[in-house]
């Protein structure tokens, strides 16, 4: 038995005793693989996927999540969440994710209760627990949601390996954090800023493909006012940085900002955390 086999067996052992379960399904590979594992273990009729609808989730992600849930044959709920009604989320300090996850579980827990489901689970994996900067994980756990992947010891690589083994279409899907993660800490989150980032990323990805420069990971970071100018910083795969820099006409599709710059270091997950003066405070 491989390590992966052992961890998947542990995951099955965690899920099997549950009468039913509600999976917080963002559309990403972690929660998608957990959703598939639950359906395989319990049967689709005892599993509900819940994808929160809010300005922080791109419309394309919602559509893909609905298609994936349908492919598994599980019920798919799409409740609305209202993170923007929470001052701590809008303020966008280093603990923003805690307010987002609080809102999520505060919406999903009553939904689960109405459906007669006791367990709400998330796609947090074992690597997430070791990352050292996950205020949202703590907030979700404090409200009773738990993380079967992490408890079973499944890392991000394990999750992708399981997804490939099971033939899931999202096995190699790039990481897709919420749109609020693109806004620099300290810059207030608003529906308008979220929509601007979503539109910019969609336009830029399309322009890069049309220019023959396909990319896997792409972010448009809203840095707020820098030297009095509303600034966006674009991150793409390191191998594509030079090609993007050499094509100002492609970069020009990122509109709504006074200045658009390309990060020469390329895409880095969680790069906004680098700008926090005291990240340890939020661990």
Summed up:
This protein is of the alpha/beta class. It has 12 helices and 7 strands.
* Strand percentage: 5-15%
Calculate Rg over CA atoms: 19 Å
Oligomer: single chain
- Helix % is 40-55%
- Give the overall form: globular
Broad structural category: alpha/beta
Counting DSSP E segments of at least 2 residues, the number of strands comes to 7
Biggest β-sheet strands, sense, barrel: 4 strands, parallel
- Supply the number of helical segments: 12
SSE string, helices as H and strands as E = HEHEHEHHEHHHHHEEHHE
Q: Trace the largest sheet across and list its strands.
A: 3-2-1-4
**Low-confidence region ranges:** 279-283
| Residue-averaged pLDDT | 93
Amino- and carboxy-terminal Cα gap: 36 Å
What does this structure look like?
The protein is an alpha/beta fold and 283 residues long. It has twelve helices and seven strands. The strands form two sheets. Strands 3-2-1-4 form a four-stranded parallel sheet. Strands 5-6-7 form a three-stranded mixed sheet. Strand 5 (218-226) and strand 6 (229-236) form a beta hairpin. The two termini are 36 Å apart.
């Amino acid at each position: 038995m491989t390590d992966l086999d052992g961890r998947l067996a542990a995951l099955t052992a965690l899920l099997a005793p549950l009468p039913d379960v509600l999976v917080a399904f963002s559309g990403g590979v972690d929660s998608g693989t957990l959703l598939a594992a639950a359906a395989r273990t319990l049967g689709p009729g005892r599993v509900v996927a819940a994808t929160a609808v809010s300005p922080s989730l791109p419309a394309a992600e919602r559509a893909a999540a609905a298609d994936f849930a349908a492919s598994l044959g599980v019920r798919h709920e799409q409740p609305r969440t209202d993170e923007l009604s929470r001052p701590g989320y809008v303020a966008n300090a280093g603990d923003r994710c805690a307010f987002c996850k609080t809102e999520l579980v505060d919406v999903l827990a009553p939904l689960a209760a109405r459906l007669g489901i006791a367990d709400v689970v998330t796609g947090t994996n074992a690597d997430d627990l070791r990352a050292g900067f996950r205020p949202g994980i703590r907030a979700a756990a404090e409200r009773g949601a738990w993380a079967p992947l992490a408890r079973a010891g499944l890392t991000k690589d394990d999750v992708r390996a399981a997804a490939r083994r099971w033939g899931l279409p999202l096995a190699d899907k790039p990481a897709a954090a919420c749109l609020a993660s693109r806004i620099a800490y300290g810059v207030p989150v608003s529906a308008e800023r979220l929509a601007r980032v979503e539109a910019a990323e969609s336009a830029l990805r399309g322009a890069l493909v049309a220019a023959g420069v396909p990319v896997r990971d792409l972010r448009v970071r809203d840095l707020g006012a820098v030297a009095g100018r509303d600034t966006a910083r674009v991150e793409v795969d390191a191998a594509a940085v030079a090609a993007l820099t050499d094509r100002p006409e492609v970069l020009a599709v990122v509109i709504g900002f006074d200045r658009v710059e390309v990060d020469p270091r390329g895409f880095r997950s969680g790069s906004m955390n680098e700008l926090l003066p005291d990240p340890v405070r939020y661990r």
